[in-house]
Specification:
It contains 3 helices and no strands. Helix 1 runs antiparallel to helix 2.
Length: 83
């Protein structure tokens, strides 16, 4: 799974500038900028929706790691003193 995600990440890092350049060439700088801005605006809402769905589907995400501030500080002191 991790290697597949890494491959997707590398492909997008290579293809994104190429596609951006093509869009700017085909549409012109102003229309290309508007298109890319609109694409980003739409994708933000899609990403937030998907994050919300994951949060709703996985109950473990609702559990807090530490219940109180003193519990968190106690764990931190334990880690620091054992090092």
């Amino acid at each position: 799974m991790t290697s597949k995600l890494r491959a997707i990440d590398l492909c997008t890092q290579i293809l994104a500038p190429v596609l951006t350049g093509q869009v700017m060439t085909w549409l012109g700088i102003q229309y290309g900028a508007v298109l890319i801005g609109a694409w980003n605006l739409v994708s933000v809402f899609v990403e937030y929706y998907l994050i919300l769905r994951v949060y709703q589907e996985v109950p473990a995400l609702r559990n807090k790691m530490y219940k109180t501030k003193t519990e968190r500080e106690g764990r931190l002191n334990t880690v620091l003193s054992s090092g």
